[in-house]
Amino acid sequence: MNTFGVVDGATIQNGACTDVYFERTEQILAAEGMNPQVTMEITTTSLPWDTGILAGLDSAISLLEGLPVDVEAMPEGTPFHTYEPVMRITGKYRDFMRYETALLGFLCHASGVASAAAAIKRCAGERPVLSFGSRRQHPALAGVIERSAWIGGVDGVSNTAAPEGIPLSGTMPHAYVMCFKNPVDAWTAFEKRAPSEVPRVMLCDTFCDEKHESLAAAEHGATAVRLDTPRSRRGSMREILEEVRWELDLHGHADVEIFLSGGITAEDILQYKDIVNAFGVGGSIANAPVIDFSLDIVAHDDIPGAKRGKRGGVKQVWLLPDKSRKILPVTSEVPKGAIGLLEPFIRAGTVLQTWDHHDARARMIVSGGIAGLPSSNLEK
User: 85, 145, 161, 341: which sits with the fewest CB atoms below 10 Å from its CB?
Assistant: First the structure.
């Protein structure tokens, strides 16, 4: 580990970042001269949302590249449901067993963030959602968080370590405003010095009432006002927003938008999206519950079988013409007009497909990852 306690890539790649029981299992199997041929599938039996969005596949494929295994998976950005295998691995168990810990970590975390982002974006509808939450996680994960949020459908992210091509958004923190004698001086300097392509979104709750600071900001060139009021000071956030909107409209600033951030949840978005123009979402995306994936043997020496609570046999997930899905053994007859969602990604260690986070995001959108999501529990 380096100074920041981060496990380096080489340690992960060589299988040294694993649970100790895999090392012990490997030693015992080797001593017994055993290395069975298995097929293992990655599934989950529960989801925080009605639908998950698969992310982290880029790291998972990089981890398995070069190993003597075959891998099929849903392409990154594909929506998935409980009990659907999102990946399967076929090979000699000892050849890949120690990678299970890292493999699941890649998929569980990234898919959790992407799934939360997709669900929150669905709640927001046409309102932009920006990912502001990388500071709620270890900085080594900033790129993973922003990449996953982008795949899930956010409209921009704040962290400068985000992968290439993801729009960066964010204007000023409260500390910036407090470096000046008053908010007007801060806004004036921002208007004068910030690059022209940066939106003039002024933070309007640093020293006094949101309504008065918002009005003052609008009179000093703001195109939008951002409210980041702590929950301990909010009272009725709805009333604060309505007061701000009223005063802006009353004084001829109907074109000045309202941007809301600060502990925003999906419930907040549903409550305020009729009056708020855009949202900055932090922990609700970055701290999203992980997807509780597991990797389980479903066939041993080509004989179907699984542990208790799991469904044996190698399976395919079929997308039917009516957009419903069906899980069937791979030996079953293909449903008419169906498309198999698990595709070959590795054959005998060789990677067959390449893609990036923009491809994954486009796939999520085209497949209905936002518009096609079932209504969330919040909307029922």
Answer: 161
pLDDT at position 367: 80
pTM: 0.93
Q: What are the phi and psi torsion angles at 145 (to 5°)?
A: -65, -50
Q: Phi, psi at residue 328, to the nearest 5°?
A: -140, 150
Ramachandran category for residue 313: left, alpha or beta (phi over 0 → left; psi -120 to 50 → alpha): left
Q: Is the pLDDT of residue 363 over 70?
A: yes
Length of the chain: 380
Q: Express each pLDDT in 234-243 by its tens digit.
A: 668 899 999 9
The residues facing 350 across adjacent strands are: 347
Give the dihedral sign, CA 3/4/9/11. Answer: positive
Where do the DSSP E strands lie in the chain? 37-43, 52-53, 69-73, 79-80, 87-92, 129-131, 156-157, 201-203, 224-227, 257-260, 278-281, 294-300, 303-304, 315-319, 325-329, 339-340, 343-347, 350-351
Task: Establish if 370 belongs to a structural domain.
Answer: yes
The pLDDT confidence band at residue 206, using thresholds 50, 70 and 90, is confident
Assess if residue 375 is contained within a domain: yes
Q: Is residue 330 part of a domain?
A: no
Residue 208 lies in a domain: yes
Establish how many alpha carbons lie within 13 A of residue 110's alpha carbon, considering only the half-sphere containing its beta carbon: 27
Q: What is the mean pLDDT of the chain?
A: 92
